[in-house]
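The protein record passed on for reference:
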Amino acid sequence: MFVLKYFQNKLAKNSMAKKWIESKYKTQNKNSIKSGVDPSSKRNIIISLTSHPKRFKQNYIAIESLLSQSLKPNKIILWLAEDEASFDEVSEELKRAQKRGLEIAFCRQSLRSYNKLIHTLKIYGDSIIVTADDDIMYPDYWLKELYETYLENSDCIICYRGLEIKYSQNAFEKYFLWKDFK
């Protein structure tokens, strides 16, 4: 978890961390046979995330880490809002990732960060839907650990990391004051 938090916090700010991630995921996994999805898996797992044009220059790093999971999902869907982006604006890295299983989907109604859940639920409501963020590099065991925990607790919502929402005086506290969920 320390490595995940380190890169989550440093991804946009630390050029050394960004270069390391880029070299690892761009060169190592670009043509990797192990990289991608497994559409024929009976597990029926869909990873869903959303993004917007301001993140197109670096969100491929998160997507590369999702394509490099030790447990392969059936599908990885990246949701983009039609009124915020067009396919022409999508980075070449994301377009190349489509060859390994990334599906780029456009939604008419933008629900902002909820795009990754609501639009996916409408189409794949019977699947195991795992939501991801477009600014985090995920360790290769991330999906496997989530899935194994789900198998042991299938009546629960499982998360890899979360924050405890702070509420006081009839209002939500500022996001940066929320603490890690334990």
